[in-house]
Design goal:
The protein is α+β, with helices and mostly antiparallel strands. It has a single domain, classed as NTF2-like, domain 1 (Nuclear Transport Factor 2, Chain: A), CATH 3.10.450. Helix 3 packs antiparallel against helix 4. The longest helix has 17 residues.
């Protein structure tokens, strides 16, 4: 019985002392989570939990909803994400690039089929947030690469 208790304590200590994930991995995960909310057209969640692009959360959400209305008017249903790459650009700043297609409900892509976008992120007290969409430096036909500083 003591052996099992000791083994359990050893496992807890090992978990507690595991290093946190690299910051770029945290940014990549945030971007994957962002795309899940994006594919649900969840303006409220994106504006609240992922964006810090406007003066207020309400304005961010309103801008997002207008964008989704425009996309839905073109037949947009969801995006397929092919690749996400994140790079640290400073202690509390990052860049992320994404390759994707925007698809209709029947799976047909909205032109152009292959797309790429980049994002600037900043770490705030409440976590990483996208502060700029379309930060430049990516093309759908080229590999995603960290910006050169």
């Amino acid at each position: 019985m003591r052996f099992l208790s000791g083994l359990g304590m050893l496992a807890l200590v090992a978990c507690a002392s595991a290093p946190p994930p690299a910051p770029e991995k945290a940014v990549e995960q945030l971007m994957w989570d962002y795309t899940k909310a994006w594919n649900k057209h969840d303006s409220a969640k994106i504006g609240r939990d992922f964006y810090r692009t406007g003066p207020t959360v309400a304005e961010q959400q309103a801008n997002l909803e207008r964008g989704f209305e425009n996309l839905r008017g073109q037949g947009y249903h969801h995006s397929d994400i092919f690749e996400i790459k994140a790079c640290m650009t400073g202690v509390d700043t990052a860049w992320a690039g994404m390759k994707f297609s925007r698809l209709k409900a029947n799976g047909e892509p909205l032109p152009p089929k292959d797309r790429a976008s980049s994002y600037t992120l900043t770490k705030f007290n409440d976590g990483w947030r996208i502060t700029k969409v379309g930060a430049g430096g990516v093309a759908a036909d080229k590999p995603l690469a960290c910006p050169v500083s």
